[in-house]
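Sample entry (90 residues):
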Amino acid sequence: MSYTYPIDEIHWSKEEIIDVVNFYSLVEQAYEQGVKRDDLLLAYTRFKQIVPSKSEEKTLCGQFEKESGYSCYRTVKQARSLSEGERLKM
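Predicted structure, serialized as tokens:
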């Protein structure tokens, strides 16, 4: 990994930064080795508590995709199409 995660160090608490980084990390894992659908959706739910604005989500996830090549949107969309307990591999 030779890129940085888009985070808001000014407005987010240390715990919120950790939770957002965890979400980005699970998106990466979905592409690289696969993740449990439920873990990803739980992390996304927490991400949305921290970033409730759709426009801010698009900005952050767009920056993440530009840096990493991994799409938060497509990953979450694919996870939602799976059944509970399934694994997601992008």
